[in-house]
C-alpha cells in the first residue's frame, strides 16, 4: 500500500471529456487521482493519474476497481461518478431493452459505485460523492427522453442519499453541466426503430443538439466546478456548470409553469 498525505479521488469515465479534465484538475488541486475507463491500456498517461480498467455496468468490475484503489492508496476521499452514455430519438422509438442499457450505466452504475465506496468512507468518517448529472436532470428532454429520465433518476437518488450519509461525515452532491464539447453524440444509443412520423422533428432535434455541443462549454469548465464540489468547506447540494446551465436553472426555478412550457417548446423548435 502506498502511503500519502494527499486526499484521494476516484473518477469514473476519465478516459476523455469531462472525466479526463476532472482528473487533471483534481491533480492540480492536490489529489492523488485514480481515473477509470473501459480500456485504459489505449490511453495516453496523465501526470498524477493512476488509470484502472472499470465497467460500471459490471458488479465484479466495480468491486475489483474500488479494491485496487483502497489497496494502492489506503482510502477514497472523493468519488466522482462521471461515466455515462447518451441516448437520442423519440421515446416511442426506444425499446425498453435499450433504455435498460442506458440506465445500467447512467443510474445503476452510479449505485454500484456508491455501494462499493460507502463502507470505506463511513469507516474513515468522511467522504464526498460528486454525481455528474445534467441540466436535463431537471429540464424536459424532447427526443432524449431516456437520457433525461436517467439524469432525473440520478437527481432523486443523489439528493436522498445525501440525507442518509451526512451523519457519517459524507456528502452526496450534484454537478449539472449544460451542453459540453465532448463525444456525447458518438457515445449515444440510437433508437431501435425509426418511426417516419417522428422523422422531421427528430431531425430538428439532432441538428440542435449537434450545434449546442459544438457551441458548448469546454470540459475544463465543468471540471473546475466538480473540484469545487469536491473541496468546498460548506458544499451546496447542486452546482450548475457553465452559463447555459445557470440560465436554465434560473428559468426552471422562477418562470411560471406556462411560460416555462412555452420556452421549452421554443428552444426545441417544437410545433403544435
From TrEMBL:
One of its GO terms (molecular function) is oxidoreductase activity. Belongs to the short-chain dehydrogenases/reductases (SDR) family. This is Short-chain dehydrogenase/reductase. Keywords: Oxidoreductase. The keyword Nucleotide-binding does not apply. It comes from Jiangella anatolica.
